[in-house]
Amino acid sequence: MTLAVLGIACSPRRNGNSTRLLLEGMETAKAEGHTTELVYLSDLKISPCHGCNACSAEGICVIKDDILKLREKLIQADRLIIAAPIFMMGLNAQTKIIIDRMQPFWALKYLHHQTLTNPSGYERVGLYLGAAGLKKPDVFDCGEKTMKTFFHMLDFRYAQPCLFGGIDQAGEINKHPTAFDEVRKATQVLMKS
């Protein structure tokens, strides 16, 4: 079975540590014969949510920007791999903007009781890949709670994430002894889920 795998690189650095993890995951999915598409948030023009609640009426956002393209890709994906760094003990701003802009999905699902997705019939599963400069044991707590909510809202089962602390400078993930192997294995499990 061939799955549609969407990867979203949320780092503001085009070649950041979390993006490097994502590239490894996407290559693994592609090598196993799945269809892959990679989106760099830094290439999109996405405004923050205005908090106007207009989407509550019909599940349609009044802001017309690149989020519409991303929403369509999210609807069609069987698997989602999202790579986002931690800034200041939470998800970085680029990631949080797209999560906040999913409010129309929330309105459709919870206010209008509509099915959000048109999957190919497979259970949808999502994987979060993250890197943080700090090594604190709770550095991913806030970001992971938000990511779990995001996946749940979009009807993706949350897979075991791959999260790496103490990774700050660009390219530092390349020195991690197990990171890429962990991402390969997690992606293989994701494809079989």
TrEMBL record:
It holds the Pfam family FMN_red. Transmembrane segments: none annotated. Gene3D superfamilies: 3.40.50.360. InterPro entries: Flavoprotein-like_sf, FMN_Rdtase-like_dom, ISF_SsuE-like. It comes from the Bacteria. Residues 5-104 form the NADPH-dependent FMN reductase-like domain. GO terms for molecular function: oxidoreductase activity. Keywords: Flavoprotein, FMN. This is NADPH-dependent FMN reductase family protein. It comes from Candidatus Desulfosporosinus infrequens.
